[in-house]
Design a protein that fits this description.
Strand content of chain C: 15-25%
Distance between the termini of chain C: 41 Å
Structural class of chain B: alpha+beta
Radius of gyration of chain C: 26 Å
Number of helices of chain B: 9
Number of helices of chain C: 22
Shape of chain C: globular
Distance between the termini of chain B: 76 Å
Chains: A mainly alpha (about 210), B alpha+beta (about 290), C alpha/beta (about 800)
Largest sheet of chain C: 6 strands, mixed, barrel
Oligomer: heterotrimer
Largest interface: A-B, 52 and 46 residues
Shape of chain B: elongated
Radius of gyration of chain B: 25 Å
Number of strands of chain C: 33
């Protein structure tokens, strides 16, 4: 549905679908993973039909997330290459967090913070996928030495926790920056939003006009 | 082996105290390798008492059979031919199985509440109905003991016959051992008995005879009398100074509260950021610019 | 057993299992107690823990017993006489013997006939054609008084001591090492350790089993061990003895009850062809004392025999018909297992009843056994399990390649109960008759052995009654007074063995005093009579079920003297004595040599022998009467010189196994007759089935594993799990030479056939240097076959030679030659 023809298209439908597959997989993984991680979260396993089902499903969902993330990676990696402007943006991130974006350099489709998050998530998922394979007891653990399994277990837990933090930041940033979430829901943003938050991108696709 | 118990010292993935009013005697099984003839009666007794029947396997070029611990072989004899002194052959035969550590790595690693129980008598027992089959116990164990069943995906290991011990009997392997190489009783008494055996072995020329009760895991409730206590590795790779791996300690130790705290902090931080800084909206100027 | 009786008078383990805990030194040789007798072996571990006893193991393999030993030495299989002969030489030349003991309780001082000779490995009287000795020169010099001439000074060169010393002086440590492959220093170290036990307060026990028995010279090996123990004064004492560990739970009971072709119950012997005369038969066996005042207990042979015949034939056995003596078969030769299969192979046997026996797996040279069975008209197999023998006619792939269409033998399989499914008694190695109770009902159609035999017997009897026959008398007159004739109860049979009074039995000193009333159970063999007034099915079991009840069922384990003498636990033959020849544990005055381990002692005040055991001597005979401890021997003493009791000579001599890696006997290199046992019986056609070292260069030995019991437990899942698949053991050096790795499959071939098995490569089989030659040993466990739950395997006895010990015809399973190749 396109109500306002002036709105800018930020994500295509396949891009959005891809994102949400990753996103949903992540939520399921975080819930089931936390259940194994700390007794306080064990009741979360009930969402999956109990601990055994959580244990069975978690790695398969992990495969789904990893593969769909790979697809997403190839869609977006070029857009996330860090430029000198991004470095400056990142240098001024304190001001941004403080709610003052006057001095922030003009951001392209993604600002420095988003790009950093992208690359951090790439690292996290790569590490999670590899370590997850090593500790997937039903099929793969027997192939690895015990020291590696122990290291992988530790790695998987720490990286997962880190990734959860990153995603919280990611989600919060989307909520905080009003008018953002619709980009991932139905693909468009307002021109004002684009000019405000991603002025370089705005210029690029509109040629500076209104 | 689940029995209603009031003597639980530790329970996996549980942060509050478990029923522990009943105080029991700390027990131990003492395996005197210098008296063991490797007859495997303990293996058979274990299978008989616990109603287990492992596969009829193959011979892989050694006496050991079944060749390794399995979900249905909770104890196996490991045969090792060594020449400690040149020309003096020894056939060291070690009964392998759960050591029932005072500081059990399996219990520490287990994510399923109540799937692993440590009783006040020292027995570390798996309650398979709560087991989720993740295999973390294997990751946590310094002795490579638990095995996941290929049929039901639960982890199994020696229970130290907690069902027998609970009603005042000795474990089945102890009952059957024909040479008295396996004895069972109060841990204190077993240590005392071991001292006598070690003295006997020293008298026979085993200068480094000693008791294997590794303190790295807080001591064990299955102990060995070794002819060569200085080289436990001779006994089919018995670890010299076993302890729970530092990886596992990090993973199941500080990482848990620290990262949980961090996640909470980020979530709360975000909330308070919103409350203190307010939403990041499009500025009025730009808004107006596009309204026109 | 054919070696201990010629030495001590009785063919049985001298001591008992629990008594092993009293030892200061344990020698395991020719056996592997930890492996084959793990439960009994606990007493070795007890001795080690509680008495700081030492354990020596001498074996071709570093065994499970060796794993807990204090000292181990390797030996080439079949060379034990050389080793033990060297030990005798060491003890004699270093004067490490128990002087008082050997002087008083052995034949040390007896003079041997001047005609007796030993030249170049052969004793006087040898007939190389028949491979037999005329033993007339193998005897003592007899005095005019009818007693043996002795020389108490031991200086006469014809006295046993001097002759033995000369005989074994050839067995120097160098010779021993050369023949056995045992390193000289290891041999000497063992000699030193053993020599220590010549002290009166030190005891060594020897534990042996089939590793000594199953050789063509097996009986002589055991005798050499017995001689060592005599020299050390270790026979008749607590913690001493020579202990034959029996493999089957009731194999001791088998020989006790005379289930050998030449035996009657209680070690009485069947008459030979020449002995048609009853009186002569008894007189020859009722031996008169050879020294003054000795008991020579076999003097009572007539009482044992008559009571036995009364048990068998009841009222039909009378003084007038010599108690049915004529009904007994008279032997032309022994019908041992090898002889029977030889006859079968020659087509001379129509039917064979195989009861609790699996000869296709258990007898040597499978191809001969299989071929022999195929020549039968019928075969009856009575067994709890579906044995290989019962399936010999069926093709089981590579494991039993036969063509059933070419075999006409009709096979009947009669399922029987196993021990846990029936009441009854078993006789342990310790000679203890122990009653046991049924634990569970037998499965399916299984019947007890007595029930099966009763069925066959009653049918035969009916047929004989109806149709007559050549000789129906023994069948028609056999006592069969069972409440259920088709199912004699174990209680009835046990009471029959123990014996009862058919008329009042009175005190020989006072005819008015009735010892046992008519119909009552007897208290012991002293009450047996030769006038037909008593009945006893096995005289040595007499008293096991008396009027006091079933003494075999007693379970009182109280041990008042603390040395494991539990006299109220079950019942030991003879007369509930636990340690045989226990009179020898005391000096001439009846004082124990070691008071801490007192079995018996003379209590002058009470006028009798008292102690922790039943005295193995007339209980009220004072030491001054001079009755010597070995009461079954007419000499009263134990024999170093076996007179005519052994087939191959009075002193054991080392001979090579029938198949040996050496071309000659290093002791007699120039005499081919003395290469292997000159008296071993070899059937004509079997000579060519023996291999030589050129084609079969490796020494092989077969044995049992803890995980299995013979060919039975492969039918049990738990045992099959513990040791699922057939394997052979190969030393590392040999494996390297042949390029064999652990887990490889190898072909082991003898001249009689081959097997294929997994190779276990081990440090525990050392390559030995024998007569300047490298000798590799291949170890072959026996337990697999083509029936049961374990993985199918080849019958190990495909490989073994068809030759037995010259005395017992026990097959030579322990040494033969093979070749090994990677499969």
């Amino acid at each position: 549905m396109k109500r306002d023809p002036k709105d800018l298209i930020r994500y295509t439908a396949p891009e959005r679908a891809n994102h949400w597959v990753v996103g949903m997989a992540f939520i399921l993984l975080a819930l089931s993973g936390l259940a194994f991680f700390h007794p306080a979260f064990y009741p979360l396993s009930q969402f999956f039909g109990g601990g055994v089902w959580a244990r069975i499903l978690h790695p398969f969902i992990g495969v789904v997330m990893a593969l769909s993330f790979v697809a997403m990676f190839f869609r977006f990696w070029k857009l996330n290459l860090i430029t000198p402007a991004d470095k400056e943006w990142l240098g001024r991130i304190g001001e941004m967090v403080n709610g003052d974006d006057h001095n922030m350099p003009a951001a392209g489709k993604y600002n420095g913070g988003q790009k950093l998050l992208f690359w951090l998530l790439v690292c996290c998922i790569a590490l999670l996928a590899v370590s997850g394979l090593v500790i997937w007891r039903a099929y793969f653990s027997a192939l690895f030495p015990i020291g590696m399994i122990r290291f992988a277990s530790l790695m998987h837990a720490m990286v997962a926790a880190g990734m959860i933090c990153l995603i919280i930041v990611h989600v919060y940033a989307a909520i905080w920056t009003r008018g953002t979430i619709r980009a991932m829901l139905y693909g468009t943003v307002s021109r004002a939003w684009a000019k405000q938050h991603h002025s370089a991108w705005f210029r690029q696709i509109t040629g500076g006009g209104k | 082996m689940a029995l209603q118990s009031l003597d639980i010292k530790a329970r996996s993935a549980t942060t509050t105290p478990s029923p522990s009013v009943r105080e029991t005697l700390e027990v131990a099984k003492l395996i005197d390798i210098s008296k063991c003839i490797g007859c495997k009666a303990c293996q058979v007794a274990c299978m008989e008492w616990n109603d287990l029947r492992d596969e009829i396997g193959t011979n892989v070029g050694v006496y050991d059979n079944p060749a390794d611990l399995t979900a249905k072989s909770w104890t196996v004899m490991r045969f090792s031919e060594v020449e400690v002194e040149a020309g003096k052959l020894e056939w060291l035969i070690r009964k392998d199985g759960c050591m029932h550590c005072a500081d059990p790595g399996c219990l520490k690693a287990c994510p399923a509440p109540g799937a692993i129980i440590q009783y006040s008598n020292g027995i570390v027992d798996f309650h398979e109905e709560y087991c989720i089959g993740c295999g973390y116990c294997i990751t946590g164990c310094p002795f490579n003991v638990p095995r996941i069943s290929k049929t039901d995906n639960k982890a199994y290991k020696c229970t130290l016959c907690s069902d027998r011990v609970g009603v005042g009997l000795e474990p089945a392997c102890v009952k059957t051992c024909p040479t008295g190489a396996i004895t069972f009783g109060a841990k204190e008494d077993m240590i005392h008995r071991a001292e006598g055996r070690v003295a006997d072995l020293k008298g026979r020329g085993y200068a480094n005879a000693g008791l294997y009760d590794p303190q790295g895991v807080g001591g064990t409730h299955v102990m060995y009398v070794l002819q060569h206590a200085d080289k436990p590795g001779l006994y089919s790779g018995l670890p010299k100074d076993p302890s729970i791996s530092s990886m596992v300690c990090l993973w199941k130790g500080i990482t848990k509260p620290l990262t949980s705290f961090a996640i909470g902090l980020v979530a709360l931080g975000s909330l308070f950021h919103y409350i203190t800084k307010g939403p990041n909206e499009v500025s009025n100027d730009i808004e107006k610019e596009f309204e026109e | 057993m054919a070696s201990l009786a010629p030495t001590f008078g009785r063919g049985a383990m001298t001591n008992h299992w629990v008594d092993i805990k009293n030892a200061d030194l344990v020698l395991i040789m020719g056996g592997n107690a930890a492996e084959a007798h793990p439960c009994g072996f606990k007493w070795v571990t007890e001795a080690k823990e509680k008495r700081q006893a030492k354990l020596i193991v001498v074996d071709p393999r570093y065994t499970r017993s060796a794993a807990v030993s204090d000292f181990y030495a390797p030996i080439r299989t079949g060379s034990d006489i050389a080793f033990l002969g060297g030990l005798i030489n060491y003890l004699l030349s270093n004067d490490k013997i128990h002087h008082e003991y050997v002087k008083n309780y052995t034949d040390f001082s007896f003079l041997v006939k001047d005609e007796f000779k030993f030249e170049n490995g052969i004793y006087s009287g040898y007939d190389p054609e028949k491979r037999k000795y005329d033993k007339s020169t193998w005897g003592y010099q007899m005095g005019k008084d009818g007693f043996v001439v002795t020389d108490p000074t031991l200086e006469n060169p014809r006295c046993v001591y001097q002759m033995m010393k000369a005989h074994y002086s050839r067995y120097t440590p160098e010779v021993v090492s050369n023949i056995c492959g045992t390193p000289k220093d290891a041999f000497l170290k063992i000699c030193e350790m053993i020599a220590e036990t010549s002290k009166p307060d030190k005891a060594m026990t020897i534990m042996y089993a089939l590793g000594w028995t199953q050789h063509s010279q097996g009986s002589q090996i055991i005798r050499t061990g017995a001689m060592v123990q005599l020299l050390l004064g270790n026979i008749g004492v607590a913690g001493g003895g020579i202990n034959a560990l029996r493999g089957h739970s009731n194999i001791q009971g088998l020989t006790d009850l005379g289930l050998m072709t030449n035996l009657l119950p209680g070690y009485m012997t069947l008459p030979s062809e020449a002995e048609q005369d009853y009186k002569g038969y008894v007189e020859k066996r009722a031996l008169k004392p050879l020294r003054p005042g000795q008991m020579s207990y076999w003097q009572n042979y007539g009482k044992f025999f008559v009571s036995n015949m009364k048990a068998w034939f009841g009222d039909a056995a009378t003084q007038d018909n010599n108690f049915c003596y004529d009904w007994l078969p008279k032997l032309d030769k022994n019908y041992d297992i090898l002889q029977v299969f030889e006859n079968m192979n020659q087509g001379k046997v129509n039917g064979y009843i195989c009861q609790g026996f699996n000869p296709l797996a258990s007898a040597p040279c499978k191809v001969k056994i299989s071929g022999s069975l195929a020549k039968l008209k019928y075969l009856v197999v009575i067994d709890p399990l579906a044995t290989e023998t019962s399936e010999f006619w069926q093709s089981h792939g590579v494991y039993n390649e036969v063509d059933p269409s070419k075999i006409q033998t009709e096979v009947f399989r009669l399922p029987s109960t196993c021990f846990a499914e029936e009441d009854g008694s078993l006789v342990s190695s310790s000679r203890v008759l122990q009653w046991h109770w049924k634990a569970t009902e037998p499965p399916g159609e299984a019947k007890t052995d007595p029930e099966i035999m009763a069925g066959i017997f009653l049918k035969l009897k009916e047929m004989y009654k109806k149709d007559g026959g050549a000789f129906p008398d023994p069948i028609l007159n056999l006592t069969w007074k069972h409440r259920q004739p088709n199912s004699p109860s174990p209680e009835e049979l046990a009471k029959e063995f123990s014996g009862k009074a058919l008329k009042d039995v009175t005190d020989p000193k006072d005819a008015t005093k009735v010892l046992v009333k008519t119909g009552e159970q007897l208290n012991g063999f002293a009450e047996l009579r030769d006038d037909g007034s008593t009945s006893c099915g096995c005289w040595i079991f007499a008293g096991s079920w008396s009027e006091k009840g079933n003494l075999m069922a007693r379970r009182d384990n109280s041990d008042p003297f603390g040395i494991g003498q539990t006299l109220n636990w079950a019942y030991a033959w003879p007369a509930n004595r636990r340690v045989l020849y226990n009179r020898a544990s005391c000096d001439l005055n009846g004082k124990p040599y070691d008071a801490r381990r007192k079995l018996i002692g003379w209590d002058a005040a009470a006028g009798k022998w008292t102690g922790s055991d039943i005295p193995d001597i007339k209980a009220d005979s004072a030491p001054e009467e001079g009755i010597s401890p070995f009461i079954m021997n007419p000499e009263g003493v134990a024999r170093f010189f076996a007179i005519d009791k052994m087939a191959e000579g009075p002193f054991p001599e080392h001979y090579e196994p029938m198949e040996s890696p050496l071309d000659n006997n290093p002791l007699h290199p120039n005499n081919p007759l003395a290469r292997a046992n000159p008296a071993a019986r070899v059937f004509k056609d079997d000579w060519e089935t023996f291999g030589k070292a050129d084609k079969y260069p490796y020494v092989a030995t077969t044995y049992r594993l803890t995980e299995h019991f013979h060919f039975w437990t492969k039918h049990s899942k738990l045992n099959a799990i513990m040791q699922p698949e057939q394997f052979v053991e190969i030393g590392e050096e040999m494996a390297k030479e042949k390029g064999i790795k652990a887990g490889d499959r190898v072909v082991v071939k003898s001249k009689r056939g081959f097997i294929v098995a997994v190779a276990v490569v081990t440090k525990r089989l050392k390559t030995l240097t024998v007569a300047g030659k490298k000798v590799h040993t291949v170890g072959i466990p026996i337990h697999w076959g083509f029936m049961g739950l374990a993985k199918n395997g080849y019958i190990t006895n495909t490989l073994t030679p068809f030759v037995g010990d010259a005395n017992t015809q026990t097959p030579e399973f322990k040494s033969f030659l093979v070749n090994v190749e990677k499969a």
